[in-house]
Design a protein that fits this description.
Length: about 130
Amino acid sequence: MVKEIMMANSILKDTINFIPSTSEDILEDDVYKSSILLSINNALATLKQNSVGKTIDLFENEDATWDDFFGSDFTGDKAPAKMFVYLRTQLEFDPPQSSVQAMFESKAEEALYRARLEGEISKCLTN
């Protein structure tokens, strides 16, 4: 089965679509749903603490979009922040085999670094 990737602008749906072992069917199971929401919220909070994005709580608003998170004043590249959320969520929710886990962690740290740079550049351009 080929997994269809459609970016719906929904943080939750985009992240679920990124993780190879998941589908939107997991949202029907409260345990899995709570677990993935918690993982995504943790990644978003880390970005917020690194001056990227706004406070978003998917437990309060499952329909939150990337536009809600970044806000209208963010002019930087959003891809590194999204990649950080995808990778951190996968590492917490469905960790890969140990042979590739270190690579995922390294890529997540790189994405966080790049997202932080984009956030700083965006703030400089809007001030």
